Queue: 2 jobs
Job 1
Amino acid sequence: MKLSKEQIEKLAGLVRLELSEEEKERFSGEIASILSYVEKLGEVDVKGIELDGVEISNIYGKDKSEPCEISQAELLKNAPMTEDGFIKVKSVLE
Amino acid sequence: MKLNEFTIKEVVKGLEEKRFSSLDVTKDCLNSIKKQEKDLNAFITVTEELVLKQAKESDSRRAKGGTLSTLDGVPVAIKDNMAVKDFPTTAGSKILEDFVPSYDAFVVQKLKESGAVIIGKTNMDEFAMGSSTESSHFGSTKNPHDLERVPGGSSGGSAVAVAADEAICALGSDTGGSIRQPASFCGVVGFKPTYGAVSRNGLFAMASSLDQIGPITKTVEDAEILFENICDYDKKDSTSNEKGIETVGKNNGNIDLKNLKVGVLKDGFGDGVEDGVKKNVVETVERLKKEGAIVEEIDIEVLKYALAVYYVLMPVEVSSNLGRYDGIKYGYSVEKEKDIEIKNLLDVYSKSRTKGFGAEAKRRIILGAYASSAGYIDQYYLQAKKVAVKIRQEFDKIFENYDVIISPTAPTTAFKLGEKSDPLSMYLGDIFTVPANIAGLPSISIPCGKVDGLPVGLQITGQRWEDKKVLSIARAIEKVISGQE
């Protein structure tokens, strides 16, 4: 089962990646071979298996603000574009 | 013997007896790095000035009689997916090439509090995705036993740093074998603790339900020392578990191999396992029997699906976790490129990610998006989750009757660089390591002789929160193996 070019293009769009023609071709083959390998999961009888309560349960933090020991300037130093203490982004629409 | 060849235990003793200083050990490590890095490429960043400063501070603490812990002054290497404040932290990716964290990962904080000297950040597969360290943006790391071979991965840099005496010990992370398999390939000890024992806060997430930080060391005893220093409850990681503190407090002392119940995986000696690997592991198992251990073959039917479970759950989580790299808040951004035309915000996302991620990351992101998309989520992701629960239940049953399970760590010894160009063939090498991640079990790889000059690893896996018991048993088996050689 090979993924169609359209399927790969749609997925790449969803995860915000641009693929070259060569990558589309290669990934669709490689992903198909991985998918055919994992296909066998369907053979396992999972009747009666619940997904709730068997894993470690979530531990929720209190909805309370706490002071952050890192300054705003420090946190922003890794941002590619900033202005007046804000992260600057391109316009959403052209 | 140079000081960089010492174990943690030996360094601690020498420091306590004032036979040498932390600066002496640290300088020997730095010299070893300088001499070997051209060939090995185990480190992405070593900041000499910062390293020497830490060593000097440790020495002055000791001179005043105020050491912070037994680890005070011991040089540790850190895998480059753990944040160290003011140290570039790249996760082996171009997308984080210039990223300098403004905080320390929990484990790094713990090490700093214990006075350890952070010697550098080690090379790794991009975002810990790989079993060979070949997918690093900063070039492959080489195996010190044969420079034409891979060190394993993804914590290849950490394993090599320890194996080649560039550091006394190191931290790695293990999502499907990334501590144990490189330890096996490089002939050192690698321990993946119980899931939840070590906080993942500040570890750049790959697959959050599987990721776990652990030590890579020269001996099992050293692994225990380092583990005790990093295992603690952390409220900033919602999967950090208070049971870790209790676990670390347990002292199993010296475990007698007599009457120890050992399960040996039937498939551990099946097809696909190299003859040499099989032979070394079987010999060790025979020795354990002579020591009085009760060894029985076990067959966990559902384990044949473990790799399939892993290669669904992991990419789904990767796809979600790597969504944060978008060229906006931190990391590589096309906004800084002058010759690329950017029309809008979507362009920033797509072009930054496209240029920032390598092939393996892209492949897994797309695969994960597929396996969790509408129409396929039941068939792939949810089915895999359920099979994972089943695997966990089967292990629970086994551990009612057995102390530990033994198998080879990897089906082969270190393979040649570039040998596994097809992703699936690389993935199949994770067959023995992945189950412990799926079931959250503590699991350790210890050296088990060599085949044609290449190290073989023996894997010992135990029940959740029996980390100390696994370590004690590993120590006893390590002794048996060293008597064998």
Job 2
Amino acid sequence: MADPRDIEIVTPYARSLGIALDRWESDAPVLRVEFCDAVQGRPGALHGGAISGLLETAGYGALRAELARSGRVAQMKPINITVQFLRSGRTRPSFARARIVKLGRRTANISVEAWQDDETKPIASAVMNILMVDAEAA
Amino acid sequence: MADEQTRFDPAQATPFLTARSHNGWLGLAYRDHGEDWAELELPWRDDLLGEDGSEVLASGPIISLMDMASGLAIWTRMGQFRAIATLDLRVDYTRPARTRSSVFGRAQCYRLTRSAAFVRGIAHDGDAEDPVAHMQAVFMSIDARTVELPGG
């Protein structure tokens, strides 16, 4: 069985935005992005789209890790994402981690939270539905 | 209300709003607008891919595109530029965008109250009748809730 920690979590888009793997926590990747111009919205605040990108990358990362752990090769396709913006993100590093709420044969439902200093005070959360197409069926 | 001379014009405002920061990094550009809607273009870029080895645009940039198009639609309908914050935004990805193609984001502010703006829109890659994504979002006016802004 492949070690899920060896897999690539950060997509070209996420890399380009400055999103990086921070650490692993209970088999899910914690992703991190530093505050910089590329993620800034109005002056001194994180852009909602950049926060969404961080959330989404964490969501895909958690699912990718789970699929690797179970030896499953599947292509992931986005169905939808709903993002709640809870607090404004400041000029500090931001983190995100996802939880797989339901892993089915064809779809996965994933819940993601992003925070800065205090994990109990999320700046945003998201629910994602992802379609999985198994390699042999693709 | 703003008079005609100072009325918010998305064609003029977009180059300033996308000159730097996240929207500038994405390279968002003005395309078109009406009384309560605006359309932006997200040009194709190799480093916005969703997966190594694929040619499919990541979904993250589409959220940013729709968020910015929504803001423009709201300010256009308001007739002025006011601080707003995204409260909630949903995107349904109906099909992958064509490879190496620009994606266009068109948002309409269909309802505006004193504190909230309700927006819907689509993203397409050339034909607005065949969208790559649908969006629904709610924005809040920041002025009206400055005191209750958490962490603010």
